């Protein structure tokens, strides 16, 4: 009976830890970019910035009417910063920016502070547990891959699991981007090959049309030659007939003499 009286919105800490946040819509992402840029200096200046994230959540709610917790905004910003750094390293030296709609906006936001200052700021925001506790809590993947966290570490219980989920999404999106980048030359070659085949087909059609014209001209010439030969035969026959008549006349004249 007591269990039935528990409100539906009460969720255990264990299930809340593993619960995955809902996806962000395009409107929320555009609003988040604006809010992030607006509160960037304030986030940079404060060490305990949970209240700043709550203000960002309220501002985002006013813009999109979609409710997001401050922790969700912090996780999203952290993961987007990580993805931005990965893409920037992958496309270092290339003229074209990555095919990610938020790359230029994040680049503009993070360019407000030099990279060394951002790293120092991040290091100053990290909590200071003992070395043994830090090594025990650090996962193998975190040891092998240096992650850039622009703001203070996560302070609530469920953020670590949510970060792993978001990080997996970022990795999959990076893999998709690499596959698309590798597919572009293949598609370009296929398009060039298709255009070459079309041009080749047009040339062959033109050659076939010329051959047809030559064949028709040859047929006309052959018909004209046959007509002339027929006329020549007729003239020859008439000439023979005249010669025969002349011979007959000569014979008659000789016989009379």
UniProtKB/TrEMBL annotation:
One Pfam family from the record: Myb_DNA-bind_4
Residues of the Myb/SANT-like DNA-binding domain: 22-109
GO biological process, one term: positive regulation of DNA-templated transcription
GO cellular component: nuclear body
Domain of life where this protein originates: Eukaryota
Chain spans, region Disordered: 120-142
Alphabetized InterPro entries for the sequence: Myb/SANT-like_DNA-bd_dom_prot (IPR026095), Myb_DNA-bind_4 (IPR044822)
Biased composition (Polar residues): 127-142
Protein name: Myb/SANT-like DNA-binding domain-containing protein 1
